[in-house]
């Protein structure tokens, strides 16, 4: 269900710097994604939201923009559409990624209720991967408000710093009104979501320019949510104001209200959309400009000022987690990043499990050991055939406090935080290997039940840093980058359990001897695991 749009960037699409404006781009992205959604749904669809968007690359007049969209997963009445935007230079043919984004569309035939969607047909390995991860992104999307509110409560305790020479945010307020005409709407008369985003971008950019006296460049957009529809004939009032500045960037908030003729006279607006846009500005040499500090002067202004700090924290921690490399200590477990850490935990294991190129290194009766090499990264997989139902294996393997019973590498294991039914943080200590200190790990264990019978149960494990549990001299604090189980049901009484581990220096001492053949501890542990599961099941 893929739809592609190509556009040549013309002067009419470009801003004063000769670069493609964010407005036309957002319009194209929304229209292409909506076409993919409608191709899947078979009825008309509306944009419910567009997740955070980052713009990595600018496109110039004369270059070609390609927008590829695909429905990743249909939920009940809504579906996630993946959007990939690239820019191609016609002279060199070089292609660069401008943005990767995700939007949600709801199938809504005109003058009818919402309709239930059929599942997406998964053809390629990438389809399967995106399908698995879409459910995780949906959790982040739908849980964003709670995370944000929690952060706001924390940040409200911090005082707003009074700074000399700070500019009043009121100075940046911009209001603009648009009349929705037929070219701004689809064939059912609904204003295009992309058109609303484009208008919001224009007003926000004027607001930002009041501070930098230059042409601001849109860098990122916080989730756009379309609370309610607007139609041809509606008047849309856009109010934009700078919420806060951060050295080289500025966050502008835009609120959109719609009125039909009657509501206009009675001054009864419908709040249809709010969004937060972050801009940079550069001088003639392309160097980033510094924005002046701002000071809010109203109660609402103070709330927005703190809101901008909270959103920036969420955005940066997310970026940090998604660009995680193996050579850095694990991310701290904080309010601003918990949803993303859980996402990255599940996503990393799902990616590892789906990688092509696994080699079998050992085959026993009911155990197979595989390895995977990618550059300097080594991973292994232990596949076990177990005569217990998959849900039983899942409940026994996701409870890490039971692991000492079958894994002799675990000396102790205790729950540090039971974050939710699906997320727990454990402190694990493990026996020393010859010539090494005993090790300890602080790990996040994320467990997920399958949404459909064909999907596996998942138990993902990665290290996190908890301030309350710093490293101690007694143990060498070690890191797990990506590990865990996927459990596939074979029948009502048997399943295949796959254990994955991306080898880090902390795990290497336990594995080296196995990989060189001088130890059998991996297969011994796997046999113990099977015995534990089958024995436990027979006692249940
Ligand atoms: C290019 C042409 C397309 C366009 O541009 S359309 C124009 C712009 N968009 C609009 O005018 C839409 C305005 N909004 C609306 O009409 C409604 O808010 C909307 C999106 C239909 C949702 O209606 P509600 O009555 O709130 O429905 P609901 O709570 O039962 O949710 C229905 C499904 O939508 C999901 N949803 C609602 N808000 C969301 C959000 N912000 N982000 C992601 N998903 C969201 C919700 O989870 C539910 O999903 P599911 O049914 O479980 O699959």
Automatic annotation (TrEMBL):
Gene3D superfamilies listed in its UniProt record: 3.30.530.20, Hotdog Thioesterase (3.10.129.10)
Superkingdom in the source lineage: Eukaryota
Record SMART domains: START (SM00234)
InterPro entries hit by this protein: Cytosol_ACT, HOTDOG_ACOT, HotDog_dom_sf, START-like_dom_sf, START_lipid-bd_dom, Thioestr_dom
GO CC annotations on file: cytosol
Domain HotDog ACOT-type as annotated: residue spans: 1-111, 170-285
Catalysis: reaction(s): butanoyl-CoA + H2O = butanoate + CoA + H(+)
Pfam families for the chain: 4HBT (PF03061), START (PF01852)
Compartments where located: Cytoplasm
GO MF terms held by the record: acetyl-CoA hydrolase activity; carboxylic ester hydrolase activity; lipid binding
GO biological process, one term: fatty acid metabolic process
Keywords: Cytoplasm, Fatty acid metabolism, Hydrolase, Lipid metabolism, Repeat, Serine esterase
Known pathway: Lipid metabolism; fatty acid metabolism
Principal subcellular localization: cytoplasm
Source species: Cyanoderma ruficeps (rufous-capped babbler)
Name of the molecule in the record: Acyl-CoA thioesterase 12
Domain START: 353-503
């Amino acid at each position: 269900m893929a739809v592609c749009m190509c556009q040549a960037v013309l002067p009419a699409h470009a801003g004063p710097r000769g670069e493609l404006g964010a407005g036309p781009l957002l319009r194209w992205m929304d229209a292409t994604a909506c076409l993919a959604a409608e191709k899947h749904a078979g009825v008309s669809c509306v944009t419910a939201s567009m997740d955070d968007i980052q713009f990595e690359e600018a496109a110039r007049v004369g270059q070609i923009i390609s927008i590829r969209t695909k429905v990743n997963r249909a939920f009940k009445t809504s579906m996630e559409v993946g959007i990939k935007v690239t820019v191609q230079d016609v002279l060199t043919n070089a292609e660069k990624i401008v943005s990767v984004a995700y939007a949600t569309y709801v199938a809504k035939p005109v003058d009818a209720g919402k309709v239930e969607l059929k599942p997406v047909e998964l053809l390629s390995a990438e389809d399967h991967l995106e399908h698995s991860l879409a459910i995780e992104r949906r959790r982040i999307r739908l849980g964003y408000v709670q995370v944000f509110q929690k952060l706001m409560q924390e940040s409200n305790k911090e005082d707003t710093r009074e700074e000399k020479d700070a500019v009043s945010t009121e100075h940046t307020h911009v209001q603009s009104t648009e009349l929705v005409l037929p070219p701004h709407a689809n064939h059912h008369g609904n204003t295009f979501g992309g058109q609303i985003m484009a208008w919001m971008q224009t007003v926000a950019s004027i607001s930002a320019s009041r501070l930098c006296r230059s042409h601001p460049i849109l860098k990122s957009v916080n989730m756009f949510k379309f609370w309610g529809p607007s139609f041809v004939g509606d008047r849309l009032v856009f109010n934009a104001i700078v919420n806060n500045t951060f050295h080289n960037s500025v966050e502008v908030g835009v609120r959109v209200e719609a009125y039909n003729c009657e509501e206009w006279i009675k001054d009864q607006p419908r709040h249809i959309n709010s969004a937060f846009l972050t801009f940079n500005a550069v001088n003639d040499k392309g160097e980033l400009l510094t924005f002046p500090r701002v000071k809010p002067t109203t109660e609402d202004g103070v709330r927005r000022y703190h809101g901008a700090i909270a959103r920036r924290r969420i955005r940066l921690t997310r970026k940090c987690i998604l660009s995680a490399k193996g050579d850095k200590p694990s991310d701290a477990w904080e309010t601003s990043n918990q949803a993303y850490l859980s996402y990255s935990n599940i996503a990393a294991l799902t990616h590892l499990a789906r990688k092509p190129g696994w080699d079998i290194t050992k085959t026993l009766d009911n155990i197979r050991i595989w390895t995977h090499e990618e550059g300097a990264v080594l991973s292994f997989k232990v596949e076990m055939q177990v005569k217990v139902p998959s849900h039983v294996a899942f409940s026994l393997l996701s409870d890490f406090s039971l692991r000492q019973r079958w894994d002799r590498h675990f000396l102790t294991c205790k729950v540090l935080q039971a974050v939710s039914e699906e997320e727990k943080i454990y402190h694990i200590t493990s026996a020393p290997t010859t010539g090494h200190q005993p090790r300890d790990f602080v790990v996040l264990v994320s467990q997920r039940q399958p949404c459909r019978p064909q999907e596996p149960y998942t138990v993902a494990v990665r290290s996190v840093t908890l301030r309350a549990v710093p490293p101690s001299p007694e143990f060498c604090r070690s890191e797990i980058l990506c590990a865990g189980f996927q459990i596939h049901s074979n029948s009502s009484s048997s399943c295949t359990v796959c254990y994955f581990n991306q080898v880090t220096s902390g795990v290497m001492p336990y594995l080296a001897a196995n990989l060189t053949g001088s130890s059998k501890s991996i297969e011994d542990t796997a046999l113990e695991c099977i015995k534990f599961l089958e024995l436990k099941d027979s006692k249940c």
